[in-house]
Amino acid sequence: SCKEKQVKSKSSKLCTYFLYLKFRFATWRDKLMIVVGSLCALIHGSASPLMLLVYGMMTNTFVAYELEVQELKDPNKESQMTMFAYYYIGIGLGVLIVSYFQIVFWVSAAARQTHKIRKTYFRKVMQMEIGWFDCNSVGELNTRISE
């Protein structure tokens, strides 16, 4: 039992270390963009179940409409359907806005980190001995920086 706790402790430390390595070039702004982008993705993902809930409420309105004959002349049904249409419009606009910000924040954070990685790599290459440039071609250097 004691060894299992040590193994779990080591594996959690290892996971934390690899997570640190993955985002070691990220600044606090990049991390903030990642968090906000992830929240936008979460909201975007919740739109489909929300639309199903609205659809279920709308279907229940139709079922109640068919079951009770005295409500056939109820003018309230049209206003209820208009309300459901507004719900769908609101969900659609919300998804449009949230998905835009989801993509913008994630792509911006990735571009900023990529720029920092390339700049760091270029600085390290410029500090190499001159013999390193004899062994490696310029095309290989360009390929490594662009990848």
UniProtKB/TrEMBL annotation:
The entry's keywords: Membrane, Transmembrane, Transmembrane helix
SUPFAM superfamilies assigned: ABC transporter transmembrane region (SSF90123)
Any Gene Ontology biological process: oligopeptide export from mitochondrion
Keyword Cytoplasm attached: no
PANTHER family attached to this UniProt entry: ATP-DEPENDENT PERMEASE MDL1, MITOCHONDRIAL (PTHR43394), ATP-DEPENDENT TRANSLOCASE ABCB1-LIKE (PTHR43394:SF27)
UniProt xrefs under InterPro entries: ABC1_TM_dom, ABC1_TM_sf, Type_1_exporter
Organism, scientific name: Poecilia reticulata
Protein name listed in UniProt: ABC transmembrane type-1 domain-containing protein
Transmembrane segments: 32-58, 85-109
ABC transmembrane type-1 domain boundaries: 35-147
Subcellular location: Membrane
Gene3D superfamilies: ABC transporter type 1, transmembrane domain
Bilayer topology term: Multi-pass membrane protein
PROSITE patterns: ABC_TM1F
MF annotations from Gene Ontology: ABC-type oligopeptide transporter activity; ATP binding
Keyword Transmembrane helix attributed: yes
GO cellular component: mitochondrial inner membrane
